[in-house]
Recover the amino acids of this structure.
């Protein structure tokens, strides 16, 4: 899941200043993690400790209150009742990457992705975005080709993954919906040559860049099994010790390995 977290950190500074140039600085003075990372860690911790997804999301959300959550999520974490709020936003997809790494069948991945989404994002599009992201990661890490990943996600979820980045980029803009974030993030991965290339292509679309790169980054890590050393080291410097321990524990338990070059 570090690939997803690194995408969040890299994309953060471009979230409200859309970047259409591929050759942007990966890290800047204000680079940091956001709610995408906090909630990804929450899902990983829920899996590790066999906790309720909603409880873990609420716990970590309250512990790290300034991470940039949406208004509805902020209201939700500060209420005692656990009712979801029918969101179709991309928050369900940005946090789901640990599920794609932890479970070992398509059925389990799809079931757990739905469970992780529906505590807040119980709208069909919110659930679909989480399932598509988690399944793409699972397929990537279990050796499927890009053609197989594209065909499976397209046919199962109805996303049009047969567009190109060059077709998308000129008119694409910030959008917080799963429907307008997840397909574009997957296409950035499909057109990439390695992890860094995937992140640069995702951010350079100019959309909701931290979330988009978070989604792309999780799939890219699973597929390429390699993240540049310069990215890993910089991201690790920016994360709280608690997050690093959870990442290490998760990687160890689920045999998540990747090269750093």
């Amino acid at each position: 899941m570090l690939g997803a977290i690194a995408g969040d950190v890299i994309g953060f500074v471009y979230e409200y200043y859309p970047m259409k140039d591929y050759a942007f600085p990966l890290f800047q003075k204000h680079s940091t993690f956001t709610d995408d990372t906090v909630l990804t860690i929450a899902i990983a911790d829920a899996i590790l400790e066999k906790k309720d997804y909603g409880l873990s999301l609420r716990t970590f959300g309250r512990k790290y209150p300034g991470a940039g959550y949406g208004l509805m999520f902020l209201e939700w974490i500060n209420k005692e009742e656990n009712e979801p709020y029918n969101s179709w936003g991309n928050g369900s997809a940005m946090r789901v990457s640990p599920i794609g790494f932890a479970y070992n069948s398509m059925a389990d991945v799809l079931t757990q992705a739905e469970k992780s989404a529906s505590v807040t994002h119980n709208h069909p599009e919110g659930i679909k975005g989480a399932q598509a992201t988690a399944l793409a990661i699972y397929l990537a890490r279990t050796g499927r080709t890009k053609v197989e990943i594209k065909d499976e996600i397209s046919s199962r979820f109805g996303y049009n993954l047969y567009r190109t980045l060059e077709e998308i980029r000129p008119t694409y803009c910030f959008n917080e919906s799963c429907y307008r974030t997840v397909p574009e993030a997957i296409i950035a991965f499909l057109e990439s040559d390695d992890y860094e290339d995937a992140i640069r292509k995702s951010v350079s679309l100019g959309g909701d860049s931290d979330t988009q790169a978070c989604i792309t980054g999780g799939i890219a890590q699973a597929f390429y099994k390699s993240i540049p050393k310069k990215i890993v080291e910089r991201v690790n410097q920016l994360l709280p010790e608690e997050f690093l321990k959870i990442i290490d524990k998760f990687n160890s338990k689920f045999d998540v390995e990747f090269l750093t070059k």
